[in-house]
Specification:
alpha+beta, 6-stranded antiparallel beta sheet, 5 helices, 17 strands
């Protein structure tokens, strides 16, 4: 069992989360995020992603996060309860989540590097079909993919946008990423690939002036890209804490049987 003495509280702006925070503030002394050895996050999955991205930006990825759901789905969160927090933290099961690194080069020549915890997606910007060249480990595997877009998803993100796009659910610890097309037109029978998470993926936009494409790392978008490189960023591994009875690996497994 682990004891976390210095705790930080981060709260979504929703009324439900603010009300829950008021119930927790009297349970002990809270510290700032930069001083904490655990972060308690109150909100939904979107707020959890914001919290994790903020930690990456502050270069504090090693601090574990225990989220409690005050949003809608709460896939990345634990159940909200205002009592028993000490015991829950001491019993919590840690899970490592490795983000992707996206390096996007725009048609203007500018380079943007962003992390993605769930997925990196490329999406057409206009009614024109996107045409993409896909390279894996310096080998062109698809000379031309005509589609609405394509995405690369981590196991933690495989149940989100990736699954909605008919991509596979990947167990935590599988050592894989999903490469999933979005509304592919040609080749018609290509439905994606499961790749080792050591793979280096490059997606080049064919004729980006006529068929513009944007690149999105979770919630952050870069428009008018010419080329995007994607790989795992093992130096920025994150830790999420879960109640043993609601562990993330079990949730991902059970999503395969959801009606």
């Amino acid at each position: 069992m682990t004891h976390y003495a210095r705790r930080a509280l981060v709260v979504s702006s929703t009324p439900q989360a603010r009300e829950a925070a008021a119930q927790l503030t009297d349970l002990g002394d809270w510290v700032g995020e930069d001083e904490a050895d655990v972060v308690i996050a109150l909100g939904g999955d979107g707020f959890m992603l914001q919290t994790l991205h903020a930690m990456l930006e502050r270069r504090k990825p090693a601090v574990p996060v225990f989220g409690m759901n005050l949003g809608t789905v709460g896939f990345l969160m634990n159940e909200w309860r205002h009592h028993g927090l000490d015991d829950r933290l001491s019993r919590a099961k840690p899970f490592k989540v490795t983000p992707l690194s996206m390096t996007a080069v725009g048609i203007d020549g500018r380079t943007h590097t962003l992390p993605a915890i769930n997925e990196v997606s490329l999406l057409r910007e206009t009614r024109q079909t996107a045409k993409l060249e896909v390279t894996v480990n310096d080998r062109v595997v698809l000379p031309e993919l005509a589609c609405d877009g394509i995405l690369v998803a981590t196991p933690a993100g495989s149940t989100a946008y990736n699954f909605s796009a008919q991509g596979p659910i990947l167990p935590l610890g599988s050592g894989m990423v999903a490469l999933t097309p979005i509304s592919p037109f040609r080749p018609r029978r290509w439905r994606g690939a499961i790749l080792p998470d050591k793979a280096r993926i490059r997606i080049r936009v064919l004729n980006p002036g006529k068929r513009p494409v944007s690149a999105v790392a979770d919630q952050r978008e870069i428009r008018d890209v010419a080329q995007v490189d994607i790989c795992m960023d093992r130096a920025r591994e994150l830790t999420l804490l879960f109640d043993p009875e609601h562990a993330l690996d079990d949730r991902i497994t059970m999503e395969q049987f959801a009606a």
